[in-house]
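Quick one, T. Sequence first:
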Amino acid sequence: MNLRGLVSVSGKPGLFKLIGQNKSGFILETLDEQKNKIVVNISTAKMASLEDITVFGDSADLKLSDIFLKMKDSKNLPDAKTADGNSLRAYFTEVAPDHDQERVYASDMKKIINWFSIIKDLPLFNEEAPEPITDGSPVAAAETPLVKKPEPVKEKPKATKAAGKSATRLSQKSK
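Structure tokens:
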């Protein structure tokens, strides 16, 4: 499952695909049919990459991608809008039996079920996850950069007559 580049933004419903970065923020695209593009301010928005999200577990944290794989195999996905806390807990115990029942709230389970409902039909849901990138940039931490960084232009220093004369003077003085 390839979750690279999919992000959740606090205060905005749904999921977004990270498509680039400019000096004022990240450029995101909605995952619906409309493909609306928005710019999210770097300093004020809180974004979370689905690839990096984990769920509290009893012994160790559970990766969201592993939970999604188990949800894919499950047949009885509850409707997050109408399901009560007990039915959500029963479903989550089925797909993530090691989750910490005290620290994983019903609102968390609803959010994960909503995210799964959004991405289950996308082609990237069946793709293999690419290797992690470690070049230190904020975009690389979230996904493979779609916008290539420009390479620095290397100019040759221009020789001036003054520079040539001073080199000649230095060599004559040293003799």
